Amino acid sequence: MPEILLTARAKGLSEAYTPISDHALHAQIQPCSSPAKAEEPQVIGVTITAKETFEGVIRVAMPVCPEETRFFLPGVIYGTNRGEAPLVVDSQAPRLRKEGDFPASPWWMFRSDRLSHPCAFTFAGGRLAGFAASPYYVRRDGIRTPWEPGITGEFDLYTGFGCSVEKGEVWYTLGYENAPWFFLDAHQYFPAAPLGENCIRLQKGESIALRLYCFDLPAEDERALHIPLQWVYRRFHEAPRRLCSVRETVTDIAAAIARDAWLPEHHCYSGFVFDRGDHFEYNPLPSITWTNGLSAAVPMLTSAHRLGDENIRQQALDCIDHIVHHSINPKNGLPFMAEKDGAWSNNGWWYDRQHIPGHAAYLVGQSVYHILKAWEREKALGFDHDEWLDFAARVIARTETSRNSDGEYPYILSDRTGAGLEYDSFSGAWCMAAAAYYCLLTGERAYLPRLLRSEKWYHDAYIRHQECYGGPLDIDKNIDSEGILSYIRAVRCLHEITGDEMLLDHMRDALHYEYTFKFCYNSPIKVPPLGTAGWSTCGGSITSVTNPHIHPMSSSVMDEMAYYLRQREDDYIRSRLTDTLLWSCQCHATYDREYGYGKKGWMSERFCHSQGLVKERYPDGTLASTWFALMPWACGSLLEGLTGAMWED
Fold first, then answer.
1. Are 419 and 468 in contact, with CB atoms under 8 Å apart?
2. What residues contact 551, with CB distance under 8 A and at least 6 apart?
3. Contact in structure between 158 and 524 (CB atoms under 8 Å)
4. Closest to 184 in 3D by CA, of 622, 625, 545, 614
């Protein structure tokens, strides 16, 4: 049985955690079962009884190897959260360091719903160890009970998870703290609050029971995390609600975007649409892709194909043609990132967060990938757009010369020469995805050897260690769930070309990494409108360790999940795909103002599942758990996933 240490902190007293006996608490710890297989946990039961009334937080610790330990709290801590990297950046997130100033700390604690799965693990010394436990408690027949699927009752209290690189421990708490800092977002953070509503209260003589599902298994590398994580998923899995069909979802969303967001004078959709009652207010948010442009237009094009709607198709074609014909930088042959007042440049809304000026590889590669998808789908219906394919070919010819000696594509490319200026990021994997897709569609094979070398580099340098950073441009190379989506697309294309089974292994590894951000249960959200609309967290993925909200981007790779399942049967990936599909069909408004704003079919980017990013307010000043806006790019992530294999299925 692993060593279990119990400490507590009482409300209104010292901030230090001391042995529970100091707080008149008594514990019984006993094994409940032993694992039948190496990948199964040992179940340990803990019962804590108060000899006197107690109000505070109780911490359950499992000591592990303190040297060179890497921690994994899914959705919030990966390794050290780049604790070794420079700390002075614009976008802040919790970092683990034995010594260092904010945002670094040797320990962190979080409310359980900040994590996508209720568990905490470590990798050190060739072993993967840690535990899972219930994310919250309910009152059932007057008895405080740890929630698991099938257990019903009135919500009682949140639990918490944490870790300490200094002590070499993972933590589970009854009650919770967000400490030593609470991150509302990457730019608003506050010292840990005094204990209050986050406490557990035990009356004299009252007991509380908990179960720890403890793992300890050999591990070649950090990918061993997915052995216990699959068990945690199955133990705590709670499917998303079933709300709309695929056709209903696509119809509602596409109609809303075409009706309410199209800006013909800009040849694109508005990045934000706000309903002001008697009129709409628009924020175009110019961007060639990612947060506007092709990431909205191409899914709208595929939606038009599925729905047989020529008006929607013509809007999408206008946007795509405008970008193809006008966006290229004549100095280097790469597309500019944004257009404002008729002038093209790289000055998108994120520009001042770049470390150096230039073209962002994230958008360069993604724009080409989207144009290739549009070309493929139009050609299948008998429409030729040779200029689209030529656009892709010319840009790829430039990006394929930009790799460094490792085989990694740039983060930023020069706006004068197109040369790579900055690397060390997952961002450029979009260039790999675009080139791999081009090779698949055209039969071009000259790029293939270098593409395969780059694929191996990204897998071994980032995915193997469960630490993919430097995807989106607004989080200063913190760890995220977005960048991996480009790699998943690239590996799918490369496997289609080569049939190499190792590429399927790598695709599985990448999907598994993305699933660490994807909720496995439906968290009891307390803030409206999500908390009152019946909205489900399961199947949605947390954006990054920096932006603590769920957004829909991971829904865009449902085709790739389906492709994997056509090659290999995998119950785990199939269940995750089903979660993603159901989640994607329950996020938009099914009637006007269902989420307190907007029209039928509207959906924003932001779903605040926990305390992070809860900043939007109703007119009366109360907090809301979503943005009050229609955001076509976010809708596009759903439409891209729903208009492919999911429509056919």
1. no
2. 540, 541, 543, 605, 606, 607, 634, 637
3. no
4. 614
Closest-CA residue to 513 (of 473, 451, 471):
471
Residue 649's pLDDT is 67
- What is the residue type of 304? A
Label residue 87 left, alpha or beta by phi (over 0 means left) and psi (-120 to 50 means alpha). alpha
Tell me the C-alpha distance between 96 and 79, whole Å: 8
274: number of Cβ within 10 Å: 16
* pLDDT tens digits, 536-573: 999 999 999 999 999 999 999 999 999 999 999 999 99
- DSSP reduced 3-state for 549: coil
d(CA 294, CA 285): 13
Q: Which residues of the chain have pLDDT under 70?
A: 649
Q: In terms of pTM, does the model score above 0.90?
A: yes
- Distance (Å) of CA 469 to CA 125, 408, 424: 24, 13, 9
**CATH of region 246-648:** 1.50.10.20
| Whole-angstrom distance, CA of residue 178 vs CA of residue 180 | 7
DSSP category for residue 34: -
Provide the CA 549 distance to its chain's centre, in angstroms. Answer: 8
Residues ≥6 apart with Cβ < 8 Å to 647: 246, 247, 250, 306
> Which DSSP string do the residues of 630-643 spell out, in sequence order?
B-HHHHHHHHHHHT
Distances 50 to 342, 423, 622 between C-alpha atoms, Å: 70, 55, 37
Q: Quick: pLDDT tens for 517-532.
A: 999 999 999 999 999 9
Handedness of CA 310, 311, 314, 320 (dihedral sign): negative
Token reading at 177: 């703290």
Q: What confidence score (pLDDT) does residue 382 get?
A: 98
Q: In whole angstroms, what is the distance from residue 305 CA to residue 90 CA?
A: 42
Q: Where are the domains of the chain?
A: 5-235, 246-648
> How many CB atoms within 10 Å of residue 637?
25
Q: Please name the helix (run of DSSP H) or strand (run of DSSP E) that holds residue 623, with its range, or none.
A: none
